[in-house]
Amino acid sequence: MKISIEALEGRGDAYQFGLKQADRLKQTVLYNKHVRRRKKSIRRYTTDFRETKAWIEEISPDLWAELEGLSEGLGWRFEDIVHEYAGYQQSWIKSGCSALMGRGVYGRNYDYHPKTYDGRFIMYQPTSGYASVGFAQRIVGRMDGMNEKGLAVGYHFVNRISPEDGFICCSIARLILDSCASVPEAVRLLKELPHRHSFNYSLADSAGRTAVVEASAKGAVELQSDEGACTNHFRAPSKLSENRHMTKESEQRLERLVELKRGSDSANDTFNLLNKTKYGIAKKEYGNWSGTIHTAVYDTVSLNVNVGIGTDAVPVGISFADWLKGSRFIVRKLRGQIDFEDGMEHLGVQLPERSDPHGTAER
User: Fold this and answer.
1) For the stretch 122-140, what's the b/e string if a residue is b when 16 or more beta carbons lie within 10 angstroms of its beta carbon?
2) Phi and psi dihedrals of 160, rounded to 5?
3) Percent of the chain with pLDDT over 90
4) What distance lies between CA 218 and its chain's CA centroid?
5) What highest taxon heads this organism's lineage (predicted)?
6) Are 70 and 84 in contact (CB under 8 A)?
7) How far is it between the farthest Cα atoms of the chain?
8) CA quadruple 335, 340, 346, 349: dihedral sign
9) Phi-psi region of 166 (alpha: psi -120 to 50; beta: other; left: phi over 0)
10) pLDDT (0 to 100) of residue 75
């Protein structure tokens, strides 16, 4: 199925950016999914409003203002917006994301089921906090991304056992991008934040530093040696007991990533290793919640981004550095193809057919 990812930019006032996102969201099929999801969300979890507000306002005040704008734009009570989108104390399902990091290049596959995928690529420059670029999840959260300081981050599901009050992965990624300038700063924040579930967080920055932080409700630990790669299991001795019983596929994928990484750390090579099915990392198991929906490679030095939708895609190059200097963001849609259809009506292409179904951009 040919799919279309919306590209959206914003600068300045966070409240106004929230209004803008609400307006765009209401024009999409995705909004109807979110309305239907509210009934399930209300039953599945609760949110401590004061606790959520205290954390977000301390780390990223603009994010709180963005949520207020989203509330106004959607016409929802603010408490409902915080419950649905702020990402504190929520549940998560499995996924199988892979990352390669090294020499200032950060690459990641987002592997999941397309029906939960927002289909939104965002560049935002707030009045305070750091500007960032990346793929959105639950509107204000981020699946992966890079900020103006050249810090890149992504997450990797590990386990859902023993959840406690805390933030979910996409909200944590957003807080990191908003407030951290380097890998050491991100590691410190990951150790301070309360975590709802068990996830790995892979990191890279413009100084060439990399890290993998293994985080859960029981605490966060930085790996002593991350090998420049990350998959979906804990490796630190103190965290091994928190893994799922079945980690063989994740372990094999990690070994494959480390082996492939020895070839090159360039942005182009990283994209190909992650996205081309011939290398054995990109997957099409969408029905099993582990198909590759997008590949993103962030060059933390040049601030260039290469993105591809689906597997075996032709990457679209985006200069975040030029955008930060004031250039127009002329990309409106990122297009690609996924060999799956269930639950993907919100991602369907609304444009005329083109000859190349892979890796194109509407400008």
Assistant:
1) bbbbbeebbbbbbbbbbbb
2) -110, 5
3) 79
4) 23
5) Bacteria
6) no
7) 54
8) positive
9) left
10) 97
Cα(291)–Cα(94) distance, integer angstroms: 11
At residue 315, does pLDDT exceed 80?
yes
Angle at 230 between CA 102 and CA 320, to 5 degrees: 50
Dihedral angle sign, alpha carbons of residues 150, 151, 157, 163: negative
Find out whether 172 and 180 touch, Cβ atoms under 8 Å: no
Q: Indicate the helix (H) or strand (E) that contains 109.
A: strand 105-112
CB 104 within 8 A of CB 270: no
> For residues 85 and 66, what is the distance between their CA atoms, to the nearest angstrom?
11
- Least Cα distance to 198 among 229, 161, 226, 170 occurs for 161
Residue length, the chain?
363
- What is the spatial distance between Cα 204 and Cα 267, in angstroms, rounded to a whole number? 13
- Tokens 């193809």 sit on residue: 337
Q: Edge-to-edge strands of the sheet including 360-362?
A: 219-222, 210-216, 198-205, 151-159, 141-147, 132-137, 120-126, 2-12, 333-337, 360-362
The residues pairing with 3 across neighbouring beta strands, listed in sequence order, are 336, 348
H helices present in the chain, as ranges: 14-26, 29-44, 49-59, 61-74, 78-85, 169-179, 183-192, 248-261, 267-275, 320-324
3 state DSSP class of 10: strand
Residues 144, 161 contacting (CB under 8 angstroms): no
Give the tokens for residue 340: 């799956």
Neighbours of 289 (CB within 10 A): 17
Residues 43, 92: Cα–Cα separation, whole Å: 15
pTM for the full predicted model: 0.88
Residues 6+ apart with CB under 8 A from 22: 69, 70, 72, 73, 74
Q: In this predicted structure, what is the pLDDT of residue 363? A: 58
Domain annotation for the chain: domains and CATH numbers: 2-362 (3.60.60.10)
Q: Which of 219, 115, 213 is nearest to 173 (CA)?
A: 213
Per DSSP, the three-state class of 141 is: strand
- Reference 11, options 327, 362, 298; nearest CA is 327
Kindly give, in sequence order, each residue whose CB lies less than 8 Å from that of residue 186, ignoring residues fewer than 6 positions away. 151, 153, 176, 180, 201, 203, 211, 213
